[in-house]
From TrEMBL:
This is Flavin oxidoreductase. Coiled coil: none annotated. Its cofactor is FMN. It holds the Pfam family Flavin_Reduct. Belongs to the flavoredoxin family. It comes from Tannerella sp. oral taxon BU063 isolate Cell 6/7/9. InterPro entries: Flavin_Rdtase-like_dom (IPR002563), Flavoredoxin (IPR052174), Split_barrel_FMN-bd (IPR012349).
């Protein structure tokens, strides 16, 4: 029997995305967010409270990077979600992580995170205190340690973490259990044989 839980943001898995921007003083700001993701072949969408420092930076610079948070840097990733750049302007420096300027957009690339998507803002709307940002992907950077022998990102090497909205936990990605567009072929074959 199913139990009604009411209106909750209960979708699993949720990503742990590190949104990096520059402030007006070129200071690096990183925000931890789960409410974002791919929305087209070359676009990402973010949903951010309009009061975040990141929202101000996006309005001013119209560029950002998204990095995949990993187990090796879980403490820093969580800290980025606990502390606001509005009150702690040097929060990035406090983590001991490092950043370089993107060669393609006006945003920082956090060097410790293994996968980074460089984005240019193409649309931004604020409704009821929430800023919806659509960014065009202009490039993806991957550390060579997370690539397989064919140069593709290997998810098992990313050591990415996921957010659990039910109990506010972080989880590691597990083993591969199937192949997209192939695992369901058993049903297609069964239907064809019937």
């Amino acid at each position: 029997m199913k139990i009604n839980l009411g209106v909750k943001p209960y979708l699993f898995p949720m990503p742990v995305l590190m949104i990096a921007t520059y402030g007006e003083d070129d200071r690096v700001n990183v925000m931890n967010m789960a409410w974002g993701g791919i929305c087209d072949d070359n676009k990402v969408a973010l949903n951010i409270s309009d009061t975040h420092k990141t929202a101000d930076n996006l309005r001013a610079r119209r560029a950002f990077t998204i990095s995949v948070a990993n187990q090796d840097h879980l403490e820093a990733a969580d800290y980025f979600g606990m502390v606001t750049g509005n009150k702690v302007p040097d929060k990035f420096e406090r983590t001991g992580l490092h950043a370089v300027r993107s060669e393609r957009v006006d945003a920082p690339v956090v060097t410790e995170f293994p996968l980074t998507i460089e984005c240019r803002v193409v649309d931004m709307k604020t409704t009821d205190g929430t800023m919806r940002v659509v960014g065009e992907i202009v490039n993806v950077l991957a550390d060579e340690t997370v690539l397989d022998e064919r140069g593709r990102v290997d998810p098992t090497r990313l050591n990415a973490i996921l957010f659990d909205p039910f109990q506010s936990g972080y989880y590691a990605i597990g083993e591969k259990v199937g192949q997209a567009w192939k695992s369901g072929a058993v049903i297609s074959k069964r239907d064809a044989d019937a």
